[in-house]
């Protein structure tokens, strides 16, 4: 085996986390005996077994490509294997090309769509069929499916028990099994039954099950503890004391309270110069996020159009900061949500009264949207405290936008509202306020591909 091939497998293995290895093992069960897979604890050993079974080799990486496609690691397909989502979809449409069975695709797709509360419900309903030690809190849905297979509760041609359970827990997912069984009866090839399929892909569906599908949709995984970093860059005291931002300390405390509660590793940096803002953001983009679900960054400062100011009044382009977290620049966050919340104005109008301050360098802001120069990138959400031609207000008790956001998150996260819906509530709340005769209208720009729901600790 060539050195280049070993290096390739090593680099891919280093980019995969524990949950992804478990998924790869599950999807490979039709090709590798279960007992052999049980002993595998790291991805390198898994690749060695696949080589022993002649499932991957120097001149044929089709199975490896398909596995990475199935677990949605498109970044690894692109960076290491010269493929893409579109190429894989074309290849797998050809009869006989898919090596992961429709049955495995089905179960994996269902496991991905089940949220933590659903998993707990499924385990509860299986208490009489499986032993307690197989239904522990840390047991994943794939592990539960595997135990159901071992105990003969589900198999490729008999999914009755799983359908009965899903009818009680998630009727929309039960319909996936109905579709799978229908295809088999019509003698469709397994390659034509393509799973996983987003349950939100058919918004035209009517009735209770259609509504459930729309409600649940595709949801970003939030399974790790901590879920990720919550980075706060908070500029309070500027080198020019006239620019000091009173009330911003209260914003920092409010954000720390909420995101520590939501099980984020929350870090606040105070009073950074422009260069330090760049360096800090780049430092966090280079960290290993493989065992995390998400990245959140709050920036509180003065600003100009498209820019944030350091305490030395050096400007930093917002695009430059966001670009640090693209799939290319931060591969360990590829496919995971990146959230940027920015409390700063973006213009140059006269400063309002001292009691209610605007976040600018001595002027009221015309808050031109900084997003005009940021290209669409998947899985990124940017919340701005204000839109073009409006002001961003801050009082001695904190900014209107950030305080409203923290209050809404404390109220709505326990109701499993996704972040976009929460920010929309914030927009509505802030828009109603009137401060010294002025109005403020926040803005949301999102390329998120799924719902982002923050799990509230039990």
From TrEMBL:
Stated family: Belongs to the peptidase C14A family.
Organism: Toxostoma redivivum (California thrasher)
Residue positions of the active site: 302, 345
The protein, known as: Caspase-8
Reactions accelerated catalytically: Strict requirement for Asp at position P1 and has a preferred cleavage sequence of (Leu/Asp/Val)-Glu-Thr-Asp-|-(Gly/Ser/Ala)
Documented EC number(s): 3.4.22.61
Keyword set includes Endoplasmic reticulum: no
Residues in Caspase family p10 domain copies: 370-454
Occurrences of domain Caspase family p20 (ranges): 226-349
UniProt GO MF annotations: cysteine-type endopeptidase activity
PANTHER family: CASPASE 10, DED DOMAIN-CONTAINING PROTEIN
Entry-linked Pfam families: DED, Peptidase_C14
Catalytic class of the enzyme: hydrolase
Statement: the UniProt record of this protein carries the keyword Hydrolase: yes
PROSITE patterns xrefs: CASPASE_CYS, CASPASE_HIS, CASPASE_P10, CASPASE_P20, DED
DED domain location: 4-82, 102-179
GO biological process assignments: apoptotic process; positive regulation of apoptotic process; protein maturation; proteolysis
Subcellular location: Cytoplasm; Nucleus
UniProt keyword annotations, A-Z: Apoptosis, Cytoplasm, Hydrolase, Nucleus, Phosphoprotein, Protease, Repeat, Thiol protease, Zymogen
């Amino acid at each position: 085996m060539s050195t280049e091939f070993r290096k390739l497998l090593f680099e891919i293995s280093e980019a995969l986390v524990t949950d992804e290895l478990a998924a790869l093992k599950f999807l490979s069960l039709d090709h590798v005996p279960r007992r052999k897979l049980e002993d595998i604890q790291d991805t390198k050993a898994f690749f060695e077994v696949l080589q022993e079974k002649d499932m991957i080799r120097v001149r044929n990486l089709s199975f490896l490509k398909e596995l990475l496609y199935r677990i949605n690691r498109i970044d690894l397909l692109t960076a290491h294997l010269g493929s893409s989502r579109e190429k894989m979809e074309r290849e797998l449409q050809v009869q006989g090309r898919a090596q992961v069975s429709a049955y495995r695709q089905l179960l994996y797709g269902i496991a991905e769509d089940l949220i933590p509360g659903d998993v707990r419900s499924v385990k509860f309903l299986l208490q009489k069929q499986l032993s307690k030690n197989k239904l522990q809190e840390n047991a994943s849905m794939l592990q539960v499916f595997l135990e159901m297979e071992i105990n003969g509760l589900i198999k490729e041609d008999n999914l009755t028990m799983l359908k009965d359970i899903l009818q009680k827990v998630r009727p929309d997912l039960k319909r996936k099994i109905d579709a799978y069984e229908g295809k088999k009866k019509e003698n469709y090839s397994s390659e034509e039954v393509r799973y996983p399929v987003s349950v939100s892909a058919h918004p035209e569906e009517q009735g209770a099950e259609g509504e459930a599908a729309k409600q649940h949709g595709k949801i970003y995984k939030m399974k790790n503890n901590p879920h990720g970093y919550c980075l706060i860059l908070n500029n309070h005291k500027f080198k020019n004391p006239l620019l000091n931002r009173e009330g911003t300390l209260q914003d920092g405390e409010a954000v720390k309270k909420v995101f520590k509660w939501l099980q984020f590793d929350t870090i606040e940096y105070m009073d950074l110069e422009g260069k330090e803002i760049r360096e800090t953001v780049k430092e966090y983009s280079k960290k290993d996020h493989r065992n995390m679900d998400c990245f959140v960054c709050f920036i509180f400062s003065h600003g100009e159009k498209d820019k944030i100011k350091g305490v030395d009044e050096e400007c930093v382009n917002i695009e430059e900061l966001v670009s640090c977290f693209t799939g290319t620049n931060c591969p360990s966050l590829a496919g995971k949500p990146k959230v940027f919340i920015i409390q700063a104005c973006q213009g140059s109008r006269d400063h309002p009264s001292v009691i209610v301050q605007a976040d600018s360098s001595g002027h009221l802001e015309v808050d031109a949207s900084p997003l005009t120069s940021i290209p669409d990138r998947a899985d990124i959400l940017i919340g701005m405290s204000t839109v073009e031609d409006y002001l961003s207000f801050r009082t001695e008790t904190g900014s209107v936008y950030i305080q409203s956001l923290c209050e809404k998150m404390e109220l709505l996260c326990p109701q499993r509202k996704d972040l976009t819906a929460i920010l929309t509530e914030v927009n509505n709340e802030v828009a109603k306020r009137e401060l010294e005769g002025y109005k403020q209208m926040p803005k949301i720009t999102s390329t998120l591909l799924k719902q982002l729901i923050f799990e509230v600790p039990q």
